[in-house]
Amino acid sequence: MSKTSPPPAGLRDFSMVEFPHAHAIGLQLVEEADGALTVVVPYDERLIGDPATGVIHGGVVTTALDTGCGVASMIKKGGGASVATLDLRIDYMRPSKPGMAIKARCECYRVTRSVAFARGVAYDDDISDPVATAAGAFMIARPPEPGE
Amino acid sequence: MSADLQEEKTRRDAVLERLTRTSPYHRFIGVGFRRLGDELTAVLSYGDHLIGNPHVPALHGGVTGALLEITALTQLAWDDLWRRLEQGGAAAEAVYQGQGPKLPKTIDLTIDYLRAGRPRDAYARATVQKAGRRVAYVRVEAWQDARDRPIAAAHGHFLMPDGG
Questions:
Q1: Is ipTM > 0.90 here?
Q2: A92–B107: do the CB atoms touch at under 8 Å?
Q3: How distant, in Å, are the alpha carbons of A72, A139, B114 from that of A114?
Q4: In a mutagenesis test of the A interface, which of B25, B48, B71, B138 is the best target, namely the one with the most A β-carbons within 10 Å?
Q5: Which residue has the higher pLDDT, B101 or A137?
Q6: What's A53-90 look like in SS3?
Q7: A2 vs B109: CB contact, 8 Å cut-off?
Q8: DSSP per-residue string spanning A26-55
Q9: Cβ of B23 and A57 within 8 Å?
Q10: Helix axes B61-87, A58-77, angle to 10 degrees
Q11: For residue B129, what pLDDT is reported?
């Protein structure tokens, strides 16, 4: 996501129905006990890149990692912050397996006053055999002043 | 324009159409390509399902990233097809008969987000900075209303088919 607001208090409050693209691809968020979160995008024929192989398009992997890293940054910052992606670097290790959901485990590992740093690992059945990894920086947007 | 020239142009456009419209994901996000000679411009047709955050509202960063990656991959594949078309003879005829390129694979992609993508069409163009035998390096820019105010830029390495 380029920007996210208003921010959720926690993932339990985070409904994807509000967010059109995430909702359109069936994206779900699962909170992890250690503060990380996992994005899940179910396998969907509309998201196939190459019909000859049935592999989901890399753009969906990008979307999962951007969403996961952005939301992880927002939660880590807390206090009503929203974020905008500054940059995202994605390394692709292998194609995802046809028929399987894309998962992305994302964490924000450092947050300053203005910038959050996050990373993520995309996989299908085994996180130790990743599809892609990502690292990104996210600008913290000021929450709007009352009446602004 | 002579009839032959027009036919050649139509056949080349059909090759591009086959390259860029067979992917279900391209259709899902609404990306297509326009062509002037060998230069391609990607066009992302706006749809409400592309919005990341409805409060801004802005295109989802993943969609913008996808547009950039698709533009880079398509330019590389098109360069290969174009070379074969320009060779003429059997090489060109094979392409016209549906022989596609083997697609390059993304090794890495770095996306810089410069401005929020507004709820309207977006465009992108890629420049192949290095076309090696094994690896290509490509830069891409996406913009909306103003070409000199890009919404995002990306650069990445791509593994060429048959290059190992």
A1: yes
A2: yes
A3: 15, 6, 16
A4: B25
A5: A137
A6: CCEECHHHHHHHHHHHHHHHHHHHHCCCCEEEEEEEEE
A7: no
A8: T-EEEE-TTS-EEEEE---GGGEEETTTTE
A9: yes
A10: 160
A11: 97
- Write the pLDDT tens digit of every residue in A36-76: 999 999 999 999 999 999 999 999 999 999 999 999 999 99
CA distance A33 to chain B (A): 26
Give the C-alpha distances (Å, rounded to integers) separating A89 from A57, A76, A119, B19, B35. 17, 20, 9, 26, 29
Task: Say if A24 is an interface residue toward chain B (CB within 8 Å).
Answer: yes
Instruction: Kindly report the nearest CA distance between residue B106 and chain A, in angstroms.
Output: 7
Percent of chain A surpassing pLDDT 90? 75
Give this prediction's pTM.
0.92
Residues of chain A contacting B52 with CB distance shorter than 8 Å: 1-4, 19-22, 67
